[in-house]
Sequence to fold (91 residues):
Amino acid sequence: MSSANQLKEALDVGSQRVRAIADRVSKASLQNQDGFVLPSASMPAPGTAGAPSSGVDLENEMTNLADAELRYEATSKLLAKAYEQIRASLK
Fold:
């Protein structure tokens, strides 16, 4: 498999990872329907009695998203360089 194909596949995987993270983060609701609970004035503080359990750690998800974005950007630059080399070799 050529390096350009490997880079394209890495971009596809990166895109899927970002979509999954964004999906989990976007499902945040006060009702905790499918994501995690956002704090509100009427809700107990996390870790206290009566506080809802959270299925998703927002800080961890945002760190994962930043990591995925950096990897995606680096891979896209490598892919652009590979395509540039292909174009140069065709001239």
About this structure: The chain has one domain: 3-90. The first helix runs from residue 3 to 26. Confidence is low (pLDDT under 50) at residues 47-52.
